[in-house]
Predict the structure.
Amino acid sequence: MSGSKNYENLMHEVCVEKGWCGGVVDGKPTHVDDFIPESGRVTAEQFVDWLLRADGMDPFVELEKWQQHKDGLTDAFIRHMGAEFVDASMLKWPLD
């Protein structure tokens, strides 16, 4: 079984509470899930960069402007996922 209740909780915080849900980029709807590979190690920093990209932001442009948001999102990842990196299979919606 892949997926994690922790991921569901993480997404509730970053999407519902903080508003980083994704958007329309280059005319196509995007979501952080679109960036997550099937397997391999994913760091909190990578995940946060993907969150920003899913909202049409470049995480490396205007870094000072976005750093506080990135720090909060990174903290949420570590708090919910329990580590600074996890296997990508944990970043999937839980299967009930």
Strands lie at 23-25, 28-30, 41-43, 85-87.
